[in-house]
Design a protein that fits this description.
Helix 3 runs parallel beside helix 11 and helix 6 runs parallel beside helix 7. The protein folds into 3 domains: 45 residues; 130 residues, Response regulator (Rossmann fold), CATH 3.40.50.2300; 135 residues, 3-Layer(aba) Sandwich (Rossmann fold), CATH 3.40.50. It has 13 helices and 12 strands. Strand 6, helix 7 and strand 7 form a beta-alpha-beta unit. By secondary structure, it is of the alpha/beta class.
């Protein structure tokens, strides 16, 4: 302000050189410049860039991943970050998921949250992220790499154990069953399959596993063909186990179409509107249900903490629950089955 007053005095002293009109114009320009500079400084202090986190699911079509997406958006809102949601359409397109990771690294995002399609194939790309100083949180499915900041997932082996115990209870410890696997290299479903098989063999020796080496594949269509072949191959089955949403739905549909739904008991994994309807009408006997909404939320909030330099848990268990017709309407179960997806996926 003192400098401005001195400037005005100097101008008044030199009016013989400059006209009064020129002085007024010059003062106006100077005042605007000083005002703009002040506003810019204030704006620069107030503006804060929100960290951008790439959230990369295994796929984008199944209901499970839509629920994860909704949870991730809630987590981003809570943590004050933005997310870039992008993944392959098919859950067996490893090359596409690798390209998404490489694109995120090139874009220099502040963090990568990923559900690896393959426990080995994604390792080189995630190592590149580490070299670029981009932290990585793994969720849903494990990976053979120790560079992760955290692992946010269901205890998948325990989920397989829960499914086996329910199958054993339903069959009273006796019968013939098949296990339809998902895809090779998927760590999460492999644990569910292994946990189921080990528990049946250990606790229910009267149950014979007649097939456990058939893979349904990444789509409902491919899983349906495998389920149909298994049912046609084994006419005297008592039970089927499927380790995720598409294989469970495909098994349910095949049992209905072949008229085997009343004689073959189906225990599956994950939930969708159609699977819950199947549970209610008796087409499905039990579902081991994860909490994908919570998984997406915790994966993002955990990464936000990593970005801020906070300490996070190395492993975060998001929980799983056995759902049957007897407990489906309990408040705690309904909360898991009916997350607020529409609220977040607008």
């Amino acid at each position: 302000m003192i400098k401005m007053i001195n400037m005005i005095k100097m101008i008044n002293m030199t009016t013989s050189i400059h006209s009064a009109q020129s002085c007024r114009r010059w003062l106006a320009v100077m005042a605007c410049a000083m005002s703009f500079a002040g506003l810019s400084a204030i704006s620069g202090q107030q503006e804060k860039v929100r960290p951008l986190i790439a959230v990369i699911p295994k796929g984008t079509t199944h209901e499970f991943w839509k629920t994860v997406h909704a949870g991730a958006l809630k987590g981003a809102s809570e943590a004050g970050v933005d997310i870039l949601w992008k993944g392959p359409a098919r859950e067996d397109d490893r090359d596409d998921q690798i390209k998404v990771v490489e694109s995120a690294v090139s874009r220099q995002v502040q963090g990568i949250v990923i559900a690896p399609l393959d426990e080995q194939a994604l390792v080189p790309s995630l190592k590149e992220a580490a070299v670029a100083k981009i932290p990585v949180v793994i969720f849903d499915s494990g990976i053979k790499w120790d560079g992760r900041a955290s692992f946010v997932a269901t205890d998948n082996r325990r989920g397989g154990v829960l499914a086996a115990e329910e199958m054993g209870r339903i069959l009273a410890g006796k019968g013939r069953i098949v296990v339809m696997r998902y895809v090779e290299g998927s760590a999460s479903t492999a644990l569910r399959e292994d946990g189921f098989l080990a528990t049946i063999k250990e606790k229910f020796p009267g149950i014979v596993i007649v097939s456990s080496d058939q893979y349904g594949g990444a789509t409902v269509d491919s899983a349906y063909r495998v389920a149909e072949n298994l049912l046609n191959r084994f006419a005297d089955l008592n039970g089927m186990y499927a380790p995720n949403e598409p294989t469970t739905y495909a098994s349910m549909k095949a049992l209905k179409d072949l008229g085997r739904g009343t004689s073959v008991h189906l225990v599956g994994f994950d939930a969708s509107e159609k699977l819950v309807a199947g549970l209610r009408d008796g087409s499905v006997d039990a579902l081991v249900v994860q909490n994908p909404f919570r998984m997406g939320e915790l994966a993002v909030t955990t990464m936000a903490k990593v970005i801020r330099g906070e300490t996070v848990q190395r492993d975060v268990d998001t929980g799983c629950t056995l759902v049957t017709r007897h407990n489906i309407d309990e408040p705690a179960i309904r909360a898991v089955l009916e997350p607020p997806i529409a609220q977040w996926l607008k």
